[in-house]
Design goal:
Elements lengths: L1 H18 L6 E10 L10 E4 L2 E4 L5 E8 L1 E8 L6 E7 L4 E8 L9 E3 L4 E3 L7 E5 L22 E5 L7 E5 L12 E4 L2 E2 L23 E7 L2 H4 L10 E6 L7 E13 L8 H11 L14 H5 L3 E13 L3 E13 L6 E15 L4 E15 L5 H7 L28 H7 L1 E18 L6 E20 L4 H6 L3 E22 L7 E25 L12 E26 L3 E12 L8 E12 L4 H4 L4 E15 L11 E3 L6 E3 L2 E3 L2 E3 L9 E14 L4 E20 L9 E23 L5 E19 L8 E5 L7 E5 L7 E4 L2 E3 L6 E6 L14 E3 L6 E11 L2 E11 L2 E4 H5 L19 H4 L12 E3 L2 E15 L2 E16 L13 E2 L6 E11 L1
Parallel strand pairs: 1-7, 13-16, 46-50
Antiparallel strand pairs: 1-4, 2-3, 2-5, 5-6, 8-9, 10-15, 11-12, 13-14, 15-16, 17-18, 17-51, 18-19, 19-20, 20-21, 21-22, 22-23, 23-24, 24-25, 25-26, 26-27, 27-28, 28-29, 29-34, 30-33, 31-32, 34-35, 35-36, 36-37, 37-44, 38-39, 39-40, 40-43, 41-42, 44-45, 45-48, 46-47, 48-49, 49-51
Helix pairs in contact: 5-6
Length: about 1000
């Protein structure tokens, strides 16, 4: 608080000084901007005059107030249109009316992009930065902000888990870590979220769901380390800057409402009742009598047509010296699997006030939401696949009213019983906000002081209840109640100075920023778990006596202190230099390892402005960029440098005579654990032809992470734990990115068509695992089937999470895989783990995407195609249910995956590369058709969209995008969604 008071005192002092400056005679400029072709009003045009800025509203109108009297230069800019420059004579005390037209063009070089602690013209950026505006966002039922930019930015992979609002992952140029997070840092309106990579607290679904996508104006991705290094320790995985909408134009009310319907596109391929009965008769004849002759499709019983609705209302406008926007959004979306749904109520406030002759700019941003989530109970999808299709759903004689196997052995259970009797619910409250002030010193206009005070607070609740009379609970001898409550409070103070001007006798212009950042977080998680419940009466609404009860509380305090600086040097927009450095101190490391320094340097050379290319009329821009930077990663657990102590439970006490004593066990620890460091280089080429009708970029990059943090096995007898977390390895990602945007047909009075293409190729390689740690490889990728089986490996010389399997042998006549027939790769005559080898990996080698935006008269049409090439998936449903032994084990007979009809495996072959399938695909992510018309002088729009219109793939499982680890183990199915809606302005 002392730091805050000092900053506020300084801010008030400078404001008082500004108030002493004599006011100038001023006037106002009022105008309207339309397209040159169809005279359509253009919204979101940035109008700048005499250092004052406004944006046009949806009818093209704008107002700029407090403009000094005299002759002024007015500039109007909008992405996709040529800049308009006009001279306006302002008369004191009067309002001047202007009418401007803008001609459609390709992407303008003068577009402004966020770069972290500031903005920069796109033409002068020296790092790899990509901005996606509202007009380019993905359409349809969008629940999480990350979905807006899926397949829109080269080198950015967005992976979801198919649930409504389910957890999403973003990978920017591949994963940079294994144990630490590889998620980017999210910054919303200048406010960094949580304590680093990722989105903060949640109740089980995506942490960014608190943010209403309808409130977002643009998303900027800082891809290379030189662009992101200004964020230091949190920037190893890239940075995503989210800018929300602000008020503009005359006061107006906007409403957008939509409804949607979703259906399942694909489920696992399983035996039907006839095929299953025949298999039991052949391979388990003693169990034929247990079959009851039904024809139950268990997936049909758990899936549903999922309906959703969304409503967004906003009130916004602008006055002479202020802008404001207040928004309210409601979303309710059911999942295609019963018992899954998400509901969100979100509120947003943006207010901007200019004071003291516009020298002081105060901006307030507040976002808050409540989300209610219902989750499909954890065993439903697995049981829908494994439950025998010959058995009925209901049984009036059972305690639950549902039919189940009468056995104490582990066996499939009735998934419909779980859907209706078990519950899994979560709720989260979250609010972020910040107050930003910028003061321009009236006696030194080139110098600006900035202060940013922000908060990020959240609370989550999760209740999981499994009644004691469910079949699976009866076999285990208990019911279960698990309650988890968490709170997180994060506060940020950032203050920095910015100087932008020509400097001394130097040619060109410098832009210098230097500042200080302080972040602190307090989190408190409390967990209660009970088994052996005495009653099911209260469900998850209360606590009943139980045989076993355990509570756990985790309290964490974290701090990050930073000093940062950046210098941009620009000579005639031709020669560009950017240098930055950030020094971070993190409480997540022990003494001697808490501080890290993260520098970057980048250069740019605009060849198109040189004399030898200036006369090439077809070339409108050609710029070469190069950069180097070092960033850090501290997004992992707190207090890892210290041992934690755990009390033993009643089953692990030590006996002294007739007395049993609880033990206290310390964890394994490496007191010297330190930063992961990523060093990156990037070479880029920006190009433009035909006055930017064709434009794009080519990027070559290499990034190497050292001191990777692994959780590795501990040698027996050296510690009281099996594993320790320590720095142990290194990894490299390198690749190429291609982007192209083309105005294929300028709209004029007919068809307008803009097409975007992206392609990215990334190669990942684990370089080393420190041999001094006695570890040569680490098995990972746990699967269903068997006990403790892993099908992936971390092994130097291979991509991370490569599949670790045997090379399957095939019958030369039938072409079928030979059961137990594997290649003896080491030639020792024995088939064992030494013959398993890394075989492909889940990460796509190429990600391709194409978006088209078409207009004709009042119609608009857009669509996005996406393709993955060279991605691989382990079909765990096929390997786990693909052997006739599932009919004869100690459990009751389980249904089989249809691959068994081809392989005829009797014993499961979990480690066969037969189950590692090519997951390449082509998918139509979304198609949207809209029609805009005028009603009572205001623009209205009706629209319809289809998401996941089709997928072309050779993969036999549920979804080729089976999460980041590429293991398809009863994953939530993907849906096809139809959405229709209406947008109005009043």
């Amino acid at each position: 608080m002392l730091r805050v008071r000092h900053c506020l005192v300084a801010l008030l002092a400078t404001a008082a000084l500004a108030g002493q400056v004599a006011a100038q005679a001023t006037g106002s400029i009022r105008g309207r901007i339309v397209s040159s072709d169809a005279q359509r009003p253009l919204s979101l045009v940035t109008v700048t005059v005499a250092a004052r800025t406004a944006r046009t509203d949806t009818d093209g109108g704008f107002m700029v107030s407090n403009v000094p009297a005299g002759t002024q230069i007015l500039r109007a800019r909008l992405l996709g249109y040529r800049e308009v420059v006009d001279t306006v004579t302002v008369i004191a005390g009067q309002t001047i009316d202007v009418q401007l037209t803008m001609e459609a063009a390709a992407v303008e070089l003068e577009a402004i992009v966020a770069i972290g602690y500031g903005e920069q013209e796109k033409r002068n950026v020296t790092g790899a930065v990509a901005k996606v505006g509202e007009g380019e966002f993905n359409t349809g039922r969008i629940i999480s902000p990350q979905q807006l930019i899926a397949a829109k930015v080269a080198g950015v992979q967005v992976v979801d888990n198919n649930e409504p609002g389910g957890g999403l992952n973003i990978r920017i140029r591949g994963a940079t870590s294994i144990n630490a997070s590889s998620e980017p840092l999210y910054v919303v309106d200048g406010q960094p979220l949580s304590t680093g990579a990722g989105g903060g607290i949640n109740a089980g679904r995506d942490a960014l769901n608190f943010l209403n996508p309808n409130d977002i104006e643009s998303i900027t991705v800082l891809k290379d380390a030189s662009a992101a290094a200004i964020y230091g320790a949190n920037a190893a995985n890239g940075v995503v800057l989210i800018q929300t909408k602000r008020g503009q134009g005359r006061p107006h009310l906007e409403y957008t409402g939509s409804t949607s319907a979703s259906s399942v596109t694909r489920v696992p391929s399983l035996l039907n009742a006839t095929q299953f009965a025949a298999a039991v008769e052949q391979y388990a004849p003693t169990r034929v009598d247990s079959l009851l002759g039904q024809t139950t499709d268990w997936y049909k019983q758990i899936e549903q047509s999922a309906f959703g609705q969304e409503h967004n209302v906003s009130l916004s406008g602008a006055g002479e010296s202020n802008t404001y926007r207040l928004s309210l959004g409601y979303l309710n979306q059911d999942g295609i699997i019963k018992a899954s749904t998400t509901e969100r109520l979100a509120l947003g406030i943006n207010y901007n006030q200019r004071l003291f002759s516009d020298n002081l700019d105060v901006r307030l941003d507040v976002k808050g939401s409540r989300t209610n989530d219902h989750f499909t109970p954890g065993d439903v999808l697995g049981n829908a696949a494994a439950m025998a299709p010959t058995q009925p759903i209901l049984d009036s004689t059972s305690a639950t009213g549902y039919w189940d196997w009468n056995t104490t052995n582990a066996s499939p259970s009735n998934p419909v019983a779980s859907l209706n009797l078990a519950t899994n619910n979560g709720r989260a409250y979250r609010s972020i906000g910040n107050l930003q002030t910028q003061y321009v010193f009236p006696f030194f206009q080139a110098l600006r002081a900035n202060v940013n005070l922000g908060y990020d607070v959240g609370k989550s609740e999760r209740q999981i209840f499994n009644p004691s009379n469910l079949a699976a609970q009866v076999r285990q001898g208990h019911g279960q109640l698990n309650i988890t409550n968490g709170t997180v409070a994060n506060s940020v103070l950032e203050t920095y100075l910015n100087y932008a001007s020509a400097f001394g006798g130097l040619p060109g212009r410098i832009d210098l920023t230097g500042g200080y950042s302080y972040t602190q977080q307090h989190s408190d998680y409390l967990t209660y778990n009970a088994t052996g419940l005495a009653s099911n009466l209260l469900g998850d609404n209360g606590i009943v006596p139980a045989d076993n009860e355990a509570t756990n509380q985790s309290v964490v305090d974290y701090r990050l202190i930073s000093f940062f600086g950046r210098l941009n040097y620009n000579i005639a927009d031709r020669y560009l230099l950017a240098v930055s450095a950030r020094r971070d101190g993190s409480s997540r490391f022990g003494a001697g390892n808490q501080w890290g320094t993260f520098p970057s340097v980048s250069i740019g050379w605009r060849l198109s402005d040189e004399s030898f290319l200036r006369n090439w009329n077809a070339l409108s821009d050609l710029k070469i960029r190069a950069s180097w930077a070092k960033t850090g990663n501290q997004s992992f657990g707190d207090y890892l440098q210290y041992s934690t102590y755990t009390y033993s439970d009643p089953l692990a006490q030590y006996q002294f005579g007739n007395q049993f004593i609880s033990t206290i066990r310390p964890s394994a620890v490496d007191p010297n654990i330190h930063w992961e460091e990523t060093r990156s280089t990037n070479i880029g080429l920006d190009y433009g032809f035909a006055n930017q009708r064709i434009s794009g970029a080519i990027e070559l990059y290499n990034k190497e992470t050292k001191d990777l943090i692994f959780t590795v096995p501990v040698a027996a007898g050296t510690n009281l734990s099996n594993y320790v977390t320590t720095n142990i390895g290194s990894m490299r990602n390198h690749g190429i990115e291609l982007s192209l945007s083309a105005v294929v047909k300028q709209s004029g009075t007919g068809l307008g068509w803009t097409a975007d293409f992206n392609a990215s190729h990334n190669t990942n390689l684990l370089l080393s695992i420190n041999p001094s740690k006695s570890v040569s490889k680490i098995l990972t990728g746990g699967i269903s089937g068997g006990v403790g089986n892993n099908v992936e490996v971390l092994q130097p010389g291979s991509p991370i999470n490569s599949f670790f399997v045997y090379q399957q042998q095939y019958d030369s006549v039938t072409g079928k895989p030979i059961e137990g027939g594997y290649e003896d790769l080491n030639g020792d005559g024995v088939i064992n783990d030494s013959d398993r080898r890394p075989f492909h990996d889940p990460a796509p080698k190429w990600i391709l995407s194409h978006s088209s935006y078409l207009t004709y008269s009042h119609f608009d049409l857009s669509f996005t195609l996406r393709a993955y090439l060279g991605s691989w998936v382990y079909n765990n449903v096929a390997s786990g249910l693909g052997a006739y032994q599932n009919l004869t084990g100690s459990a009751m007979p389980a249904n089989l995956q249809a691959s068994v009809l081809e392989t005829e495996f009797v014993v499961p072959q979990y480690y066969s590369d037969y189950y590692v399938e090519d997951g390449s695909f082509l998918r139509m992510d979304n198609i949207t058709l809209g029609y805009t018309f005028t009603y009572r002088g205001q623009p209205w729009r009706v629209f319809g969209s289809v998401q996941n219109a089709f997928t072309l793939t050779g993969y036999s499982g549920v979804d080729p995008t089976a999460g980041l680890n590429g293991i398809d183990n009863n994953i939530y199915p993907r849906s096809r969604t139809f959405t229709g809606g209406l947008s109005v302005r009043l």
